Request: fold
Amino acid sequence: MDSTVVSEYRPHLVAISFSLAFIGSLIALMITRRIRHKDGTLNRTAALTAGVALGGIGVWSMHFVGMVALRLDVASSYGMVESAVSLVAAVACTSAALIVVSGAPREVPRILVAGLLLGLGVAGMHYLGMYGMKIGGYIRWDLGIVALSVLIAVAAGTAALWLAFNTRSLASRLGAALLMAIAVCTMHYTGMGAAEFICTTPNRFATVQGTGLVSALGLGSVVAACAFAMAVLISVDLYAQWMQRSIGQQRRRTA
Reply:
């Protein structure tokens, strides 16, 4: 007989998910000034690094920590293929949004297009990730709340992009990162509010198994490893940029 799954959140993990969203957003927005060279050409490395910071850490890692924070009275597993695709989608969409707006930050149409790309990227990542979640049953969606979650992501993401690219002070960038984190987390938890988990199996705690699936218990380790790898990649790029600036400054002093 079908039954609704009881769920609750672990507050400390919810707080960690918000922290990841904020840190990823802040790193990405600090890198945005390097997405364009002085001659206006695209700095592909900086664009990708910002996309990994925002899409990979700020969105993808936040999402799955948020999923670990969700306690269900039914066993669950996650498909690694779907999770990997959702990571690529998040990085691609956030990188594209930052590239679009960096070309002319004061042009309203660019801000709107970039905000749309960013919002759809965040929402797309979320629902792709949810598609990869396997339980002994199914998920029933409230489409009205789903639409609201996408609208929140687009609206708040657009405002954060405008603030990040059209202000220069550290306080404003912190505010933009905070707004971006709020957008990502509000979208995620609103989207989760649209999901009703329905159990259809007699054994609620039988983990769904199969090729490419990882249990909810192992999900935290996978996410931590991926987040660490992305943080290392970002750190290497930032260090390389710092070394280039230092060498340039030394050459100018000795010239």
Summary: The beta strands are 3-4, 7-9, 70-72, 76-79, 133-135, 137-141, 195-199, 213-215. The chain has a mean pLDDT of 88.
